[in-house]
Amino acid sequence: MIGRVTSKGISLSFGGRAVTAVREADGSLRAGEAAAFDLPGWGRMSDVPFLRGPALVLGLFVRAVPRSPAAIGAGLAGLVGLGLLDRVLGPSGASDGRFVPLAIALSVFLALGLLRLMGRRSRRARAFLSYHGAEHKVSATLRAGLDPHLAEVEDVAAMGRADPYCGTNLAVYMTVLWAFLGTVIGPTAAFPLAVSLAVEVHLLGMEVETVPPRWFLTPATLALRGLIRLAALAQMLATIEPGPEEIEVALVAARLAS
Q1: Number of domains comprising the chain
Q2: Is 199 inside any structural domain?
Q3: What is the C-alpha separation between 26 and 214, in angstroms, rounded?
Q4: C-alpha span between 154 and 169 (Å, rounded)
Q5: What string of pLDDT tens digits covers the 258 residues of the chain?
Q6: Under 8 Å CB-to-CB from 115, ≥6 apart: which residues?
Q7: In a 3-state reduction of DSSP, which class is residue 6?
Q8: CA nearest neighbour of 169 among 139, 195, 131, 201
Q9: What is the C-alpha to C-alpha distance for residues 43 and 25, in angstroms, rounded to an integer?
Q10: pTM for the complete prediction?
Q11: Which domain holds residue 193?
């Protein structure tokens, strides 16, 4: 299941079918079919370890960025800003860029923290975070084997908000690995490696959270679990506990998609 969240509701793509459920301004619930969506760029690379990560990022760039002039402008502005930041943080005012990935990793958590603070003051931000939490709870309900057509709002509310399948995890893995590897081999060489490793860690993280681990206590296992816990912390910032209304919207979307 792949989900998208807005401040009005949730879109789910599940088993080749996509639906949307939203809460209207008058409090009524509207649901229906939506345009199908999936992870771009996977294709034939979806089963090739360490190549599926770069294929995903390339697909996002090719399919999403050209459709949004605002995204292109934001990307260029971000590159300029990162260059200036690196000159400020680097030794003697001009480093080799090794501080840029670290700055990006820190900015990801700063952005999540600001979003969480906005959720306390902005109704729209709070609705977005609530629907994000409701989406995670519905995902947990499906993973637990409960039929969404039989599940009640109370059943979904009892589930946790951390979802090992959430894209927030992938963003955390990617930025943290890039920050670490960038200080060792340089940011340019580290980026494709971080992308490749991030997707593999993401897939392993799903396995660790859904089935009993099959590994011994090794440094690699501890590092993986550390990244998973860090991603779970990020999800706590990117979601808030949803109310019955948000859960009802997510449950309706899951019923239509399944």
Answers
A1: 1
A2: yes
A3: 51
A4: 26
A5: 788 898 899 988 876 778 999 999 888 999 988 766 666 655 667 678 888 888 777 776 666 555 555 555 555 555 566 566 656 655 544 456 677 777 778 888 888 888 888 888 899 999 999 999 999 999 999 888 899 999 999 999 999 998 888 888 888 998 899 888 888 887 878 888 998 999 888 888 777 655 555 555 567 777 888 888 888 889 999 999 999 999 999 999 999 887
A6: 125, 129, 237, 238
A7: coil
A8: 201
A9: 39
A10: 0.80
A11: 96-243
Q: Does 1 reside within a domain? A: no
Of 121, 122, 152, 115, the C-alpha closest to 137 is: 152
In a domain, 75, yes or no: no
- Inside any domain, residue 110: yes
> How far is 120 from 108, CA to CA, in rounded Å?
19
What whole-number distance in Å separates Cα of residue 174 and Cα of residue 182? 11
What are residue 3's phi and psi, to 5 degrees? -120, 150
Task: Give residue 125's region: left, alpha or beta (phi > 0; psi -120 to 50).
Answer: alpha
Residues 6+ apart with CB under 8 A from 140: 159, 160, 163
- Round to the nearest angstrom and report the end-to-end CA distance of the chain: 9
Does residue 3 sit in helix, strand or coil?
Answer: strand
Amino acid identity of residue 4, one-letter, is R
